[in-house]
Amino acid sequence: MELKSAIRELADQNHDLFVSMRRHLHAHPELSFQEHLTAKWIASQLSAMGIPFEQGVAGTGLVAKIEGSGTSGKTIALRADIDALPILEANQVDYRSKNEGVMHACGHDVHTSSLLGAAKILLELRPYYGGTVRLLFQPGEEKLPGGASLMIKAGALDQPRPQSIFGQHVMPQLPVGKVGFRSGRYMASTDELYLKIIGRGGHGAMPEQNIDPVMISAHILVGLQQLISRMANPKIPSVLSFGKVVANGATNIIPNEVWLEGTFRTMNEPWRNEAHEKMRKMVELMAESMGGRAELEIRKGYPVLENDPALTKRAKHWAEDYLGKEQVVELDLWMAAEDFAYYTQVLPGCFYRLGTRNEAKGIVAPVHTPNFDIDEEALKIGAGLMAFLALKELESSD
User: Fold this and answer.
1) Phi, psi of 323 (to 5 degrees)
2) Residues 83, 257, 339, 393: which is the catalytic one?
3) Which domain holds residue 214?
4) How far is it between the farthest Cα atoms of the chain?
5) How far apart are CA 353 and CA 186, in angstroms?
6) Domain identity same for 158 and 200
7) 83 is catalytic
8) Which of 279, 300, 321 corresponds to the end of one domain?
9) Same domain, yes or no: 171 and 213
10) 338 assigned to active site
11) What are 296-326's pLDDT values in tens digits?
């Protein structure tokens, strides 16, 4: 049997099923680490297919496995995330979110239905391959500490440890039909910054009697930006952004305290740690020099995501074989973050992109927005390519 043709045929035959699964998930989103009904529904789908699985991994995660009929002892893993975002959906579609204020605005419904679709294809083809495919349905990608880290701690990669792992993510910048790969560094680390500036408030007309935390905050904001732009190696991508500033004063009231929240991202772990120390030192000394105090909490988030070069080279070649060379593109660096990075710290991993854009249909909205949607033709590729990569990797001697 020619597996590529068989997978394509199965993906076409089951496309309506993939769409219905995706629409069910889209209509019933749940927030990070609260995916109880989602997990129950995934379990029902796996049970219906006769695939053995374990529930309650890292809370609401599931781990399933499909064993081929051959003698190969190789194990590889496929991962999908299952959580949604706290966004009020604006799409007026039949499958619009029924959970007000919660939405699959990052495509995790696509990832989960694609993995279930790949599972169905792999199950149909069991007589034609050996080895084991482990399916990871992971909670909490959108929230620290990240469900991937918890899945690893819970043993999702143990007994036996897979030789490699694949994950895919929707990309609305990429037209449907195309996929993207990048070897080596691909996505940034992410850290959350919580900064408290403490002064002494009072009447705005008598600033000499006060220690103005608003002015201290302004200087610190500018100073931190200069720190990153002047002390970071220009060859290392680095981003520092503050999106929340709270100073509960008034036109004539200087407050006692100001709170700021932001994010720091980079693609170099040693510089990341160095920058943390430099930022702490700067905010403390700058506030002190102006008569106030500063407290900086850095919540360390996901690490840099690095795709294994050898695995990614193989996967890109197989994707060209499955879809055609013209449908596979090289990705640029991406300063967003993904907790799939935790898997790549312990296994050779490949995290690639699935095109979902269709300008003719008006499907152009970016992820994390109320109008995000996909061209559902992408589900054929999402399921089919994942199954093809799994089987090619099981066959591979690398």
Assistant:
1) -105, -20
2) 83
3) 191-300
4) 85
5) 11
6) no
7) yes
8) 300
9) no
10) no
11) 999 999 999 999 999 999 999 999 999 999 9
